[in-house]
Amino acid sequence: MPESRHDGTLSIPRFVGEFWKSEQVIEGSCLCGAVAYECGDLLTPIGLCHCRTCQKAHASGAVATARVARFDFQWKTGADLVAGFMSTPGKTRWFCPKCGTHLMAEWSDQDQVILRVGAVDTKLSERPKVHIWMSHSNHSLEAATGTPEFAEGIPAPLDD
User: Fold this and answer.
1) CB under 8 Å, gap of 24 or more: what pairs does 85-92 form?
2) What does the pLDDT look like over 33-51, one tens digit per residue?
3) CA 160/CA 152 separation, integer angstroms
4) Is the entire prediction scored with pTM above 0.85?
């Protein structure tokens, strides 16, 4: 039976093995294209994680993440190539060893995996709705209110 999603559209489940999978397919891949995956609908809102391990793993102040069902995630290409790093006991971060793109993480005892939303190729209508691990936040990396924004690179010259 179709279910209404939080964006107002319908998700029609499909039966695979002993699990119902959503009809929505989200695709993602690494920068060089060697590793790609597909999964079903997001189970959680997109959040910006500010934890210190995400900062280090992604060389960024925050990382956009969202969870999907483990049974609804599969590597399309590069399953034999993708590499993992256990950053915290029980948590493995999976990435492409050729280009370094982080694709997802998983806790070994949970039935969901954590997508790195920046590697998602499918256009998502959702926007981040929560910041987590703000106790680790590096405030020097947060844009001040009124910081100029450009569609692409900085136009020259940029006046102070």
Assistant:
1) 85/57, 87/53, 87/57, 88/53
2) 999 999 999 999 998 888 8
3) 19
4) no
